[in-house]
Design brief:
Strand content: 5-15%
Number of strands: 6
Helix content: 25-40%
Shape: globular
Number of domains: 1
Bound molecules: adenosine-5'-triphosphate, magnesium ion
CATH class: Alpha Beta
CATH superfamily: P-loop containing nucleotide triphosphate hydrolases
Number of helices: 7
CATH topology: Rossmann fold
Strand order of the largest sheet: 3-2-4-1-5-6
CATH architecture: 3-Layer(aba) Sandwich
């Protein structure tokens, strides 16, 4: 069983939306339990917006323990602002810790502090998310800054997209959208492939 945690110090950086889409991606590769450990229960609320049943299980951190055994993947959505001990613990336990960052209003110092608080053994990647369209260069600038500071970053990124927000409002994923509105699913598929590689999925 592989544990993938989506976390970080900043609120509103797309942790929950990322968790839902990663759970959807991984459900093509095995059984997935998405653990909603946010007291706002954002994932549980999302699932209740529609009758369509997602191809993964959802439990909150209280109900999850009885459902953990036997899954291929655990995806953990965390609330904003874990303290430094929690971040160290999460990143030590997880096979991969995903840290979404959005390019606007970059303040490098708190971000670098976050990397300092990760467990020394942590396998982590920053996910540059909600990237503005061309001609904005803010995503590339953020990537450059992170790489200059020896931070591990996914090659892919998640675009800013109204259809992602629309899908979440409908209680579905962007994979279920039609036509052009489905295009952002490609971003998650690219990240999903990088995740499989980062956790050595399918390798002995
Ligand atoms: N790819 C995207 N394109 C456009 N808007 C997005 C995208 N991802 C997230 N958002 C916007 O950012 C908001 C916050 O996303 P989300 O709830 O996933 O963040 P979070 O990190 O889980 O927040 P919290 O810290 O409150 O748990 C969403 O409600 C949505 O409006
Ligand atoms: Mg959230």
């Amino acid at each position: 069983m592989k544990i993938i945690a989506i976390t970080g110090y900043k609120g509103g950086v797309s942790k929950t939306i990322t968790s839902i889409h990663i759970a959807r991606f991984l459900s093509d590769y095995g059984t997935v339990l998405l653990i909603d450990s946010d007291p706002n229960r954002s994932v549980e609320k999302w699932a209740k917006r529609t009758d369509s049943v997602p191809p993964f299980k959802i439990k909150n951190e209280k109900s999850a323990p009885a459902h953990i055994a036997g899954n291929d993947f655990l995806v953990l959505d965390t609330p904003a602002r874990p303290d430094s001990n929690e971040l160290a613990e999460i990143s030590e336990e997880a096979h991969l810790t995903i840290l979404p960052c959005i390019p606007d209003a970059i303040s490098l110092d708190p971000m670098l502090m976050m990397f300092h608080d990760l467990a020394p053994s942590a396998n982590y990647r920053v996910l540059i998310s909600v990237t503005p369209p061309y001609p904005s260069k803010s995503a590339e600038e953020l990537r450059k800054l992170l790489l200059e500071n020896q931070v591990m970053v996914f090659n892919g990124q998640i675009r800013r997209s109204a259809s992602i927000v629309k899908a979440i409002d409908l209680g579905i994923t962007v994979a279920q959208m039609k036509g052009r509105e489905r295009l952002p699913w490609r971003d998650y598929q690219e990240i999903g492939k990088e995740i499989l590689e980062a956790i050595n999925y399918g390798k002995a």
